[in-house]
Amino acid sequence: MTASSTASELIASSHEVAERLAKVDYYADADLATAIFLALRLGKPLLLEGEAGVGKTEVAKAIARILDTQLIRLQCYEGLDVHTALYEWDYSRQLLHVRLLEAAGAAIDVDDVESGLFRRQFLLARPLLRSLEAARKGDTPAVLLIDELDRADEEFEAFLLELLSDFQVSIPELGTVRAEVRPIVVLTSNRTREVRDALRRRCLYQWIEYPDADKEFRILRAKVPEAGERLTRQIVAFVEELRRGDLYKRPGVAESLDWALALHVLDAQELTLDNVNRTLGALLKYQDDLELVRSNKLEELMETSAV
User: Fold this and answer.
1) pLDDT by residue (tens digit) across 231-288?
2) pLDDT at 281
3) Which of 77, 131, 136, 197 is most buried by its number of CB atoms within 10 A?
């Protein structure tokens, strides 16, 4: 039985994956739907790469929704260590336990106290350990999202190799913890550094591009229906043309959604030079990009988006 056989039995094909994702407002193309299906069927981690804001994190959230299972997220950052990601001992509760024993006035055996301090009740499970313990046999596995892996150090990435191979960890005071049901693992990377080959070999891989105009229109209509169809089409056309420019950071779907919400809050029915100028900071997040667009391209972009 594969690691995620319970999940794979619930979905029969990549076409069904795409259909079920669409029902939770995630529109996956055939390649991505196939990669998700194979990850479920084979029980292998899925590594997603692409520009920031293209919807990599949303893939894991959508998988959890269509399987009606728990999403456990580990947000990576520089300096992330194993204990923060895996487990820590609850020192405050351990100290309280010792003080209660002292207050009881009973004879204290040091060895008994020490062994008692390192029981499971004093262990704080962090995302990786929680994902191993999240499901029992017969249950749908949890979805473990290891988000922005490229921001973590290479030492942490090396630790993940063993975890993703065996789905077990050793806790010196307690022994080995093994997953009864392996979690469905989704890793994301914005490629601020290259993920090493050893980890890539353990994963299925998918690159996620910016959506085409039709897909982005469907996403915006699903997520921000109050913006109106005409305004949404103008937003999509404007953003699509903007991404062709020489920007430091091209806007992703997340920024398109923010912009649509901002324009709706201002009661915009269509794009105008005034409301675009006032809200462009919802779409572009660097001053150089803002100055470039406002000084050279804004009128041209407005003409392109006039639908």
Assistant:
1) 999 999 999 999 998 899 999 999 999 999 999 999 999 999 999 999 999 999 999 9
2) 94
3) 131
Mean pLDDT, the chain, as a whole number? 89
pLDDT at residue 231 in the model: 96
Query: Kind of pairing, strands 204-207 and 143-147?
Result: unpaired
pLDDT, position 105: 61
**What pTM was estimated for this model as a whole?**
0.86
Question: Could you tell me which of 113, 89, 115, 92 has the C-alpha nearest to residue 101?
Answer: 113
Q: Which amino acid is at 145?
A: L
Predicted pLDDT at 62 = 97
Q: 279: closest CA among 304, 256, 303? A: 256
Q: Using CA atoms, how far apart are residues 220 and 233, in angstroms rounded to an integer?
A: 9
> How open is the CA angle 152-62-52, to the nearest 5 degrees?
40
HEC string of the chain equals CCCCHHHHCCCCCHHHHHHHHHHCCCCCCHHHHHHHHHHHHHCCCEEEECCCCCCHHHHHHHHHHHHCCCEEEEECCCCCCHHHHCEEECHHHHHHHHHHHHHHCCCCCHHHHHHHHCCHHHEEECHHHHHHHCCCCCCCCCEEEEECHHHCCHHHHHHHHHHHHHCEEEECCCEEEECCCCCEEEEEECCCCCCCHHHHCCCEEEECCCCCHHHHHHHHHHHCHHHCHHHHHHHHHHHHHHHCCCCCCCCCHHHHHHHHHHHHHCCCCCCCHHHHHHHHHHCCCCHHHHHHHHHHHHHHHHHHCCC
- φ, ψ for residue 51, nearest 5 deg: -65, 155
